[in-house]
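A favour between colleagues. Tell me how you read the following sequence-structure pair.

===
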Amino acid sequence: MKSLIDKLLGRDTDDSVMTEPGSEGKEQWILLEKVVGDAFVEQKRARQWGIFFKLLTFAYLFFGVLIFYQASGRSVPSSTDGHTAIISLKGVIKEDTQANANTFATGLRRAYEDENTKAIIIAINSPGGSPVQSDYMFNEIKRLKDKHPDIKVYAVVSDIAASGGYYVAAAADEIYANQASLVGSIGVTSAGFGFVEAIEKLGIERRDYTAGENKSFLDPFQPSKPEQVRFWQTVLASTHERFINRVKEGRGDRLGDYPDMFSGLIWNGEQALEMGLIDGFASAGQVARDIAGVEEMRDFTVKKTPLEELLGGMGTQVGKGMAEYWHGEALKMEF
């Protein structure tokens, strides 16, 4: 090794005297610089890969602990004396959110399948959302209630149960809330924008090719047609009527006679109690202890694992918002 370096430096191996830097000496210096440079690059790469694998190992251990912790938390058995099952319904009710019918129904069925379940509480904190998802949940609650008549279902509202949130609550045997909770909003909405004048001022020509005279009905870039607006209003009215019938089916003669009850207005808990939209004031814990008579509670809400949350957050959907709007978001109905 020493002799190689001496040769690269142009030294005489006998007396270690540097040769004069002629053309041959310059080539040796260039070669030396390349060797040293390559050595530094390799060392840097090795260090970077070392850091990467250390971080990968840490992440693996971290998520492994989280998954184990969550799994162990789910497996805690209830006492043989029984428990009150809890299923949470939080956030906007929509197919691609946590508050969707499939996830909700899975948790509800698991609660009924547990032989120690003595009562069920649906803990609601939702401003509403999809009429379809809300109706699926309503139907599943009613189906399982008919199948298990000895297990009562209570809906407990925290901050809000509006529109679709109240639609689901109406399927319960009894509904409880806080005096300051927001309850109701029994109505249907479909909103969008109109850009007709805007594109005219910008000199934009709208090109829309369809088969079917109403295929582009309510297109935000074209003037609305009165006959199409009237038609869409009948669709909304029909959906609203179904909502009203569901509330009447669930609440029965507990509903008072109030002209604005189904107008889309929303009330606080005290007003809702007077109108018959709820049965009383209580938290989930109070319902389990004082009304259901089974104080111990067990959560059956189906939740995403930490890994699923991570992978879901890492996903990217470029242009999803615009695509949804231009391809039918304007025609979407919501509770």
Summary: Confidence is low (pLDDT under 50) at residues 15-20, 71-76, 313-327.
